[in-house]
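Researcher: Please predict.
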Amino acid sequence: MDSIVIEALVRALSVGTPLLLACLGAILNERAGVVNLGVEGLMAVGALAAFAVASKSPDANLWVAVGAAMLAGAALSLLHAFATVTLRANQFVSGLALALIGTGAAGLLGKKFEGLPLFNKVPDWTLGSFTISPFTVAALILAGLLAFWLTATRGGLTLRSVGENPAAADVLGVNVGLTRVLAVLGGGALAGLAGAFLSLSYRSSWADNMTNGLGWIAVALVIFVGWRPLRAIAGALFFGFLYYLQFRLQGNSNVPTEVFSAMPFILVLVVLALAGVRGQAGDAPAALGRAYVRGER
């Protein structure tokens, strides 16, 4: 029984890895006051960039592929930063556009990679009778580092002040625009890393729509965990377990497979509703979603 529980936890954590990485990126964005609904597109572009580099030859450096995914995510998120910080466009509209651009571009450019072999995948690490991906370990470490950085460092305090009261931060000499742009780029890089996990480790292939809504769940997960990186670990584990349960029960139950596929998305609606009832939205940064214009109140 213990081995079954441990296996379920390990598998759930593995499935929850892209959710955790993408959620951490969204937390970084939103702590600076910028909403980014384009996580799904950033993950798709990251997954494609990683696979494109890794599938070139058997000697391709997988860690260069990971770097390419993070760079692609950051580069695409620069569009969102320019629109929302420089042009002060509506953050929600810009994020939705980014999601469409990212998934559309990845689907179009990735057609030539469909069905191609991945000569080498990122190798898993063996822990006793179980295996775990280096991406999963990295995600857990990043969650701890981000939590520490946000709460115990000057840079983290600066970023949080921009998200809470950008006018006060500006008065104290903080470059609000630059801080927000860097936060968006960092969040995009983490979303790209989540995509790299899908194409280099979890699925070890490229296919259109391989993110399958994970980016949207990650956006909702930010609210569910109250914008706290360490809580994101538990949240990702919870949704990862739902996906794991979906795979285990399909074919072993009289319930239609569509019900299992819809489970994570149904739970997103439920947890967001519960968060609203509990008033958890009050934990959001005070200036979240609002463009900053110097001199305006």
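Model: The domain at 2-123+131-283 is CATH 1.10.3470 (ABC transporter involved in vitamin B12 uptake, BtuC).
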